[in-house]
Specification:
By secondary structure, the chain is α/β, with parallel strands linked by helices. It has 3 domains: 74 residues, Roll (Pdz3 Domain), CATH 2.30.42.10; 199 residues, pyruvate-formate lyase- activating enzyme, CATH 3.80.30; 125 residues. Helix content is 30%, strand content 18%.
Length: 423
């Protein structure tokens, strides 16, 4: 059931004198299991709400309202459904001690897939769960497939239900739902002929499988070779070639690319990143498909608009080792536009290990170590994705402590470098 966390001012809920902490048990006779149910059931303009107030008193409310008029109920967050798998490449198994608490949560929650685009495996959903997805039209969903071979998927996810994936996807798409899929590519597991089979199987399901992303496995010093090893540059290139072959077919038959190699595959293979046309509607940026080209294009577009900032003599841009060369290629243009010395600082990841090269997983202390000589007139730009909403780095270091350690330099998290360089 759902608890009320807050009530909008001037709303129907306020007029009913509903209280924070009240549990909503049923709406129109239907159980309210979570926030998705609440949203779905509140769509009816005629409502019977069965509640239990904070004192334990059961109360029923009859509501008639205009279609679309909000009740003003703000629910408490749902408890996250945790993952029942033990994937051979699970990134959580590669976490070091001291990592932010939230990064220990093994979520595999279809509600997060629908609302935030998180990828789930569907292994914790039985027939009734699938029926609910269809009944409530929870589409699009984002599903980690990895392989369509039932035995291989069961070995990779270490879950006997893993082999049902093709039946589950057919059921969802046959009932009109759209699904974005992904493959986390692990060498000598689901690459090569297995990759070709998975691509073919998903393509044959039809256009209900809206996209397929191929992402290289990410390993840390704590789980590398246990039992999965990283892809070599040559293996990354081979995977790109396999993806490109499937893209040609999709472009000819469906007039959109359908399958995409993640940015990391191109970077690891030492290949140039594709242009805009590769990414169709750019719907997969959050999955690392097109995010780097998008960032670089925005940077190139905005650099000519930059102006010198008073008191700033040196700009130090901290980033991961994979992005440093790409931003470094723009260093002279940044110098010309800002009138300041520009230093691109590739930060080696000691917290997770050097196999992790992306900026978003850099720890606060590793970033601090990369700036040994802060001085007056310095502007230090951090990758904004290294911080959570509470301004904590991935190693739980607070941003305020980071800033204090780098005084008298100015520190800014950079969501976009041009915004961070605006006076």
């Amino acid at each position: 059931m759902i608890r009320i966390a807050d009530i909008a001012e001037g709303s129907i809920a306020e007029e009913l004198e509903l209280r924070i902490g009240t549990r909503i048990v049923r709406i129109n006779g239907e159980k309210v299991r979570d926030g998705i149910d609440l949203t779905f059931l509140l769509a009816d303009p005629l409502l019977t709400l069965e509640t239990v107030d904070p004192d334990g008193e059961r109360l029923t409310f009859e509501v008639e309202r205009d279609p679309g008029e909000s009740m003003g109920i703000i629910p408490a967050p749902d408890t996250v459904r945790e993952c029942a798998n033990k994937c051979v490449f699970c990134f959580i198994d590669g976490n070091p001690e001291g990592v932010r608490d939230s990064l220990w949560i093994r979520d595999d929650d279809f509600r997060l897939s629908f609302t935030y685009g998180s990828f789930v495996t569907l292994t914790n959903l039985g027939p009734r769960g699938l029926e609910r997805l269809v009944e409530q039209r929870l589409s699009p969903l984002y599903v980690s497939v990895h392989t369509t071979d039932p035995d291989l998927r069961s070995r990779m996810l270490k879950n006997d239900r893993s082999g049902l994936i093709m039946d589950q996807l057919r059921y969802l798409t046959d009932h009109g739902l759209e699904v974005h899929t992904q493959i986390v590519l692990c060498p000598e597991w689901n690459d090569g002929v297995h990759l070709d089979r998975t691509i073919e199987d998903l393509y044959r399901i039809g256009e209900g499988i809206r996209t397929l992303s191929v992402v290289p496995v990410g390993l840390t010093r704590f789980n590398i070779h246990r039992p999965v090893r990283p892809l070599t540059p040559e293996e990354c290139g081979q995977a790109i070639d396999q993806v490109d072959a499937a893209r040609e077919r999709a472009l000819a038959e469906r007039e959109y690319g359908w399958i995409y190699s993640a940015d990391e595959l191109f970077l690891a293979a030492g290949r140039s990143l594709p242009d805009d046309a590769y990414y169709d509607d750019a719907s997969l940026l959050e999955n690392g498909v097109g995010a780097v080209p998008h960032f670089l294009q925005e940077l190139d577009h905005r650099i000519p608009e930059l102006k010198p900032m008073e008191g700033i003599r040196r700009i130090r841009i901290l980033t991961g080792t994979s992005m440093a060369p790409l931003i470094g290629a723009r260093a002279s243009a940044l110098r010309e536009a800002t009138g300041a010395e520009v230093e691109i600082v590739p930060v080696r990841n000691e917290f997770y290990g050097p196999s992790v090269t992306v900026a978003g997983l850099l720890a606060g202390r590793d970033l601090l170590d990369a700036v040994p000589d802060p001085r007056e007139g310095d502007l230090v730009l951090l990758p904004a994705e290294t911080l959570n909403q509470d301004d904590l780095f991935i190693d739980s270091l607070p941003l305020k402590d980071f800033r204090q350690a780098l005084e008298p330099a100015v520190v800014r998290p950079a969501y976009e470098i041009p915004e961070a360089l605006t006076p």
